Structures are given as C-alpha cells and as structure tokens.
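quick one, 247 residues, struct below
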Amino acid sequence: MNTPLPIPTQTLSPQQLNQRVYLLTGATGGLGRSTALSLAKLGATVILSGRHEDKLNHLYDEIEKRGYPTPAIIPFDLEQTEEEKYTQLINSIYNEFKRLDGIIHAACQLGVIGPLASQDSSFWLKVQQVNLNACFLINKACSPLLSRSEHASITMVSDSSARQEKAYWGAYGVSKSALESYSSILADEQEDSSINCNIFIPGPSLLPIRKKTHPGEESAKLAPAELVGDAMTQVILSSENGQVYQV
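---
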C-alpha cells in the first residue's frame, strides 16, 4: 500500500465551492457530519446520504441554521447489491442538479474486531458490501456525470490501524486493504480524465468508530472531529491523483 502523505494545505475561502455539488455517503456519522459542514461552509451543495432519514433531517436543519447552501437528502442503504438501485441514485441526482463534482465515501461498517475464525459470514459479507462493493457501484454509476465536471474528485476512507494488516482486524481490515487497492487502480485508469481519486485516513480522532476500535483511549490525544472534516475537505479539493493522505 502507498505510504501516507501529509494533508495538503490549500488556502480555502468562503463561497469557493459555490455551485459545486458533492455526494456524501454516511453523512450522519462522525466523519460524515464534520465533512458535510466543512464543505457547506465553503458554499458547496452537499447531498446527504444515509440509512436513517430522521438523522439526515437533523443534519439538514443544522446546515440551514448556519446559513450554508441548502443541502439535499437521499436516503440510501448501501447494503443493496442491485446495480439498478445505484443507477436510480445517480438519475435522481442528475434530475435535481444536472451536475456532480465529487463523491465522498464516508459510510463505514465495522463488523466484528476479532479472529478470522470467529467471523460470522453474514457480517463479513455486509462489511465488504458497505465498505468496498458499494463504493465500486456508486463510482461506476456516477462516472458519466462526474466526468462533466472540470475538477471532480472521488475520496475514499481508510484506517490507520486496519491498514497495518495485523491480527484481529477481520473483515474491516480486509475491506480497507482492498479499498486502497481499488482506489489505486481507479486512479490509474482516471489519470487522463478530470477525476482525481484519493484515499483519506483520519488517524487517531474523536470519531465514534475510534471509540469502538480503541476503547479507553485518552480523548485529549485525539484530533477533534471538526479538524478532521476540514482535513478531508483539503483532500477532496487536492489536485493530486492516486494518493493516500493521513491527518
């Protein structure tokens, strides 16, 4: 796997992303929420996607109260495997906005942290579907619309611990290793296009998933969610392709 690079440091200004549209999966999770607010703060229209419509509505209201551009909501379950469902997703985006400037895959399924021999097959398949297969299905469906943007991006999320390929990371670790390989292949195929594809690694951060994988860790040593969201935005807007960035 590629050696992670430091987060890019571009000067970002209010309304820099005015008129741009981004699809964000896992929008109501810790990383998704902070990224949605970071993008909206810069003038972007964020399409909030997730399984729980009530949580999506709450984030929608929070973005509006801050005076940011009105977001959109598309409830969507990434456990779906039918390609037709993903085609319908991009059709709804096209009908509403006629453009798409980026996809941020913040949705994540942790599964069970433990020995491979103890992994339940249903959980194993669910983790691979949400963390890896759904990314492929969304990217494939959205590629024609993304290619119309002058500066499009696909940003996927890995994990600093799981990518070490150590014992007990189970289906989650396998999905993140596979996701990085998939991202590298996709980036290479998009080398001559307007679409950049990169991996973002939050590192030790104050995110809900970190509390599950590292219980008892001192919060004072972890990066706040807001900082991580801003770092993700830097990666989304990076002009580089095929890189891995870590906070």
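The mean pLDDT is 95.
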